Amino acid sequence: MKYDIDKELRSVSIFRGTVVGNLYPLINIGYKLKKCKSDQYVNVKKYVTPGFNDEKLSTLVIEPKEYTGNLPCILFFHGGGFLLRASKAHYQIAKWYAQMANCKVVLPDYRLLPKYKYPVAVEDCYNTYLWLLKNAEKININNDRIIFAGDSGGGNIAGAVTAMLRDRGCSLPQGMMLIYPVLDKRMITESMKRFTDTPIWDSRCMKWFWDIYLEEYDASQANYFSISEMESLSYFPKTYVEVAEFDCLRDEGIEFAKRLQAEGVSSEVHVVNGACHGYESALTSSIVNKCMDRRIDWIKAMQHS
């Protein structure tokens, strides 16, 4: 089916999810070669941090070139269907957050499918947050001003870690920013039924993902991987949601934001018209520029709330 995707996203929309799924080992080799390096605006530092079952992770901390005192922080969980490493686009967006919002951005290199299935990635990121709280003073972070951010599978992690923190009696983040997030394993929304052949990601890819991710787990238990199925979301922090018009994940993002509002949580949702899943990769587009401006405004408002 042909979709009216914005011409600025042509370089992104030529790819199909099945291609990404089949070629992910090669894609990851390319991503691994694209290091996140310091530039004229930010410094990038690498830390060894604890992961699930005492494994070691590599975690990046991106910070403005010049700053004073303890800064707010974004704990950024990159997307990629739990199969792909952080991409060049993820690194650039993380740098923009640090530069434009004058904050630190922490980017954990959590472990991936197919070797590491649920709950490894989520538990890795949960441990990164605990490390962050423990070392906040050392790395000059204000642990009362931490926002979770995540795109696609990273949005799933952001929600899952928030629920884990509540259940385990830990402090919650101040806010959460979800970009075309994966939230509902039931796959029952209208967009999930309709968008079976959209660029980058579609409902067929989604089914494949859930089957692999939960292969070693009882998927009848909603637990932390299907946040939309949880009995209550009333404890969630203020939340920003952004979804793409032509994306099977569109409606579950919209419904999640509406449910938060119904349960008394301040939330907002933005539909990016003419966009497909993964539109953030079009870094030079006006679409991404507008989204970044809106996100930075929201982040700054959170920092001063």
Provide a quick synopsis of the model:
The protein is an alpha/beta fold. The chain has 9 helices and 8 strands. Helix content is 36%, strand content 21%.
Give the tags.
alpha/beta; single chain; eight-stranded mixed β-sheet
Could you characterize the architecture of this molecule?
The protein has 305 residues and is α/β, with parallel strands linked by helices. It has 9 helices and 8 strands. An 8-stranded mixed beta sheet has the order 1-2-4-3-5-6-7-8, with helices on both faces. It is globular and about 50 Å long. The N and C termini lie far apart (45 Å).
List the helices and strands and how they pair.
Blueprint: H1 10-13, H2 17-33, E1 42-50, E2 56-64, E3 71-77, H3 88-100, E4 104-108, H4 120-134, E5 141-151, H5 153-167, E6 175-179, H6 190-194, H7 203-213, E7 238-246, H8 250-262, E8 267-276, H9 286-303
Parallel strand pairs: 3-4, 3-5, 5-6, 6-7, 7-8
Antiparallel strand pairs: 1-2, 2-4
Helix pairs in contact: 4-5
